[in-house]
Structure formats: structure tokens, C-alpha cells
Specification:
The chain has 254 residues and is an alpha+beta fold. It has 5 helices and 11 strands; from the N terminus they run ββαβββαβββαββααβ. The strands form 2 sheets. Strands 2, 3, 4, 6, 7, 8, 9, 10 and 11 form a 9-stranded mixed beta sheet that branches. The chain has a two-stranded antiparallel sheet with strand order 1-5. The model has no long low-confidence stretch (mean pLDDT 94). It catalyses: uridine(38/39/40) in tRNA = pseudouridine(38/39/40) in tRNA.
């Protein structure tokens, strides 16, 4: 590794990367199952010849993908741009490193993130080429206008307990919503949702509820009641994980 030691000064680096989540049990390290974090730390530790621990911007569930994810790690080594190429050579094909850059030593990948944005894809026709990246929802038509009507209701609330996985270690279920919108492009629907933070399983629970609205099972106005019940059983079934992508995490890198 072409790097130098920095006289015992600990340096903090941010790493920007993407991954296809199909083969992983989520981002975060698991006791028995393979995770993206485990692969990343193994590669970094091998190349830098020291034990490297990373802290991610968040955790994605089993099977969820990330087009733009960040993590930070600390080392005494002064790193250069060769590390990106070395990591990409070492890592499996479904994890790609985009860049590594130094940040202030107290800058935090999770706590300093200002927003997170996800996209969810639904195919309205049976599409053999998007089986792994879109929910194949062709048996029943969806009313995108009603789904967007329901989305507007999300902005009236900050407590999203109804869309949270039960029994997690969240200290609060409050989230500030910045965007929630469905777009149609031919036979594909794309849902974009952005907030300061998300609860575990929250996006997939929202998508599942919106699909109930779109298929006429419930009305847009019913989403208000779902949220106010503060009960996961009031919301729709979680949408499949394979169609969900983390697409951006925001930071103020000044």
C-alpha cells in the first residue's frame, strides 16, 4: 500500500460507494450472515494491513441496494487515490468504491447526514429485465394520482411509528419529510422519498400503504388515520426489498 504514517495523528476518511444488495443481508454487520459492511472492512483491513472499522450513514435492509452510500473510518495512514482502485480490485463485483476523501476528525457519516433519499421502482407490466430491481405489480392497475394525493398527507406529520419495524432501538420515531412523490415513465413507476432520517422498514411500509391506495383498497384520506393510529398493523404490508434503492445522503462538507 502506497501510504504514509502520520506520526500517531488519527485521520478520518469518508468513503463513497454503491452496492447491489441482492446477495447481502443488509449493510450492517451480522453475526452469521454476509453483509456489505463486513466485505468493506475486510477489504480495507487487508489492503491497509490494520484492523479497520467503518461507520455507515445508515443501515439498509436485506436485499436493498445503494446507488450512493457513505461510511467513515479512522487510520493513522495518509491515504492516496490509489486506494480506490485497490479496493475495487479486491471487492466483489456487486460493491463499487467511488471515492475516498479526508474529513474533519469529528465528522460523522451517520449523525452529520442532513438528509437521505430513496427511490422505489414498480413495473406495471411483467418485465423479465427488471425482476431484480422493480416490484412486478402487473396483475392490478394502480392510480398514481391517488397515490400522490396520499403522499401529500405525509408532510402533515412527523411521527411515523405506524411505518416503523416493531421493537427496534429507535430513541424517537420522528422524521421530517422533504419529498414524497410518484412519477410514471411508460410502464414503470418511480417513488422518490427524502427525509432527514428514516426508521427501519419505513420506506417499504409507506410504499406498501401507497399501493393499497393506488389499487383502491383504501382511500388517500385513510393514510391520515393510518399515521395517527401509531400502530404498524394499521399500515400496508412492506413492499419487496429488491426494488428499493438508497440514492443519496446529504452532508455539509464545509
Amino acid at each position: 500500500m502506497d501510504s504514509l504514517h502520520s506520526n500517531n495523528i488519527i485521520l478520518r476518511y469518508f468513503i463513497e460507494f454503491s452496492y447491489n444488495g441482492k446477495n447481502y443481508f443488509g449493510y450492517q454487520i451480522q453475526p452469521k450472515d454476509i453483509s456489505v459492511q463486513e466485505e468493506l472492512e475486510k477489504a480495507l483491513s487487508t489492503i491497509l494491513r490494520e484492523e479497520i472499522k467503518t461507520t455507515g450513514a445508515g443501515r439498509t435492509d436485506t436485499g436493498v441496494h445503494a446507488k450512493r452510500m457513505f461510511a467513515h473510518f479512522d487510520t493513522e495512514q495518509v491515504l492516496n487515490e490509489k486506494l480506490v482502485h485497490q479496493l475495487n480490485s479486491f471487492l466483489p463485483a456487486d460493491i463499487g468504491i467511488k471515492r475516498i476523501f479526508q474529513v474533519k476528525d469529528d465528522f460523522h457519516a451517520r449523525f452529520d447526514a442532513t438528509f437521505r433519499t430513496y427511490e422505489y421502482y414498480i413495473s406495471l407490466e411483467k418485465n423479465p429485465f427488471t425482476q431484480d430491481s422493480a416490484w412486478q405489480h402487473w396483475r392490478k392497475s394502480l392510480d398514481i394520482n391517488k397515490m400522490n394525493e396520499a403522499c401529500k398527507i405525509l408532510f402533515e406529520y412527523e411521527d411515523f411509528t405506524s411505518f416503523a419495524k416493531l421493537h427496534t432501538d429507535n430513541k424517537t420515531n420522528l422524521c421530517k419529510m422533504y419529498k414524497a412523490e410518484w412519477e410514471q415513465n411508460g410502464t414503470e413507476l418511480k417513488f422518490t422519498i427524502s427525509a432527514n432520517r428514516f426508521l427501519r422498514n419505513m420506506v417499504r411500509a409507506i410504499v406498501g400503504t401507497m399501493v393499497e391506495v393506488g389499487s383502491g383498497k383504501i382511500q388517500p384520506e385513510d393514510v391520515r388515520k393510518v399515521i395517527e393510529n401509531k400502530n404498524r398493523n394499521s399500515a400496508g404490508t412492506s413492499a419487496p426489498a429488491h426494488a428499493l434503492f438508497l440514492v443519496d445522503v446529504g452532508y455539509d462538507f464545509k
